[in-house]
Amino acid sequence: MFTRRQALIGAAAAAMLAAMPPLGAVAQEADIAALPREHVTLVAPPFVHAHEQMATSGPKVVEFSLTIEEKPVVIDDEGTTLRAMTFNGSIPAPMMVVHEGDYVELTLVNPATNEMPHNIDFHAATGALGGGALTLIMPGEQVKLRFKATRSGTFVYHCAPEGAMIPWHVVSGMSGTIMVLPRDGLKDEKGKPLRYDRVYYVGENDFYVPRDEDGNFKGYESPGESYGDTVEVMRGLVPTHVVFNGAKGALTGDNAMTSKVGETVLIVHSQANRDTRPHLIGGHGDYVWEEGKFANPPAKDLETWFIRGGSAGAALYTFLQPGVYAYVNHNLIEAVELGATAHFVVEGTWNDDLMKQMEAPGPIPTN
Ligand SMILES: [Cu+2]
Q1: What is the DSSP track for 179-237?
Q2: Alpha-carbon distance 178 to 174, whole Å?
């Protein structure tokens, strides 16, 4: 049992401690201040900012900036317009790359022209709702968040303001990915280094666009105006659109991703809200981290891989033959009817040795 005197002393000591900066925090601030800093300008998906695959120096503080944009986005070839909410104007938000042990220092800006409060929850961070509790800002405010990337892998980040706002902001476009690479890069199941020549970031989104009495998709003047109708559609759990990079056709035709025969491509695929199953038609996943976490050995030679809703996965493939490869969500209804199809255009000459495996066997003798 505590006496009243012990309780008072305890309270006084606690008050003193509260008034003093924690010693550990002071030391840590000094340690962080001594680290080199790098400012990274983010680029719109499917592209990813330049980065080292194997770190050539020690940990640093990597500075990023995201500006939240609420804006109309056309999401199909019929002109259907989503009252989108975005980080930096793109759906998905840009991919960030750091190394394990680096500090991520994000400046999040909510311009006064926006209507809604927003924040950011990094699945790569630990505590404080992944940063969500520290970053909720009103239009006209900005905030800085810093965390140490202690686990390697591809991790989703998304807006998570509160309650019913959370799923709505996410399915309105507010999610992206951070890739935390092991300092010595990617490795196969035996620890042998793996490298990529290109990296592409494919963000998949499910959209829930309300229809009018005639069955046509409705348009709205602002996100707030679209909220009530959109939540009604969301509650049915049947998306009207399932797309890569914010719109049907965003990664096909002139916007197709490109590669060359012999190149190894890392494809990072995120879905912040719903399960999906990427498949490269005519290709494979040579090495796949379905859960995206590089401390686990990659699976090999996959035909289709599974990305859990609320996660990002990574697949490594070396293109062996030229041509156009469709990269789809292998729920084929979602791929063909709802929009979840991308293309890789692979240049180069046909590999004859491999062609022998693909040759038609010729007519079967009849006698
Ligand atoms: Cu938001």
Answers
A1: EEE-TT-EE-TTS-EE--SEEEEEEEEEE---B-TTSPBP--SSHHHHHHHHHHHHHTT
A2: 14
Instruction: Report the greatest alpha carbon distance in the chain.
Output: 107
What pTM does this model have? 0.90
Question: What DSSP state is assigned to residue 134?
Answer: T
Q: How far is CA 309 from CA 182, 271, 290, 325, in A?
A: 24, 5, 12, 25
Structure tokens at 275: 């399960």
Q: How many angstroms does the Cα of residue 322 sit away from the middle of ligand 1?
A: 41
CA distance 279 to 305: 7
pLDDT confidence of residue 366: 61
287: left (phi over 0), alpha (psi -120 to 50) or beta: beta
Question: Is the distance from CB of 187 to CB of 156 less than 8 angstroms?
Answer: no
Beta bridge partners of 99: 181
355 belongs to the catalytic site: no
> Which of the residues 51, 141, 264, 304 is marked catalytic?
304
269 is catalytic: no
> Distance between CA 229 and CA 210 in Å, rounded?
6
pLDDT of 29 reads: 85
95, 96, 116, 174: the catalytic one is 174
Cα–Cα distance for residue pair 101/226, rounded to 1 Å: 42
Cα 114 to ligand 1 centre (Å): 10
Cα R_g (the chain), whole angstroms: 24
User: Which of the residues in the chain have pLDDT under 70?
Assistant: 1-27, 354-367
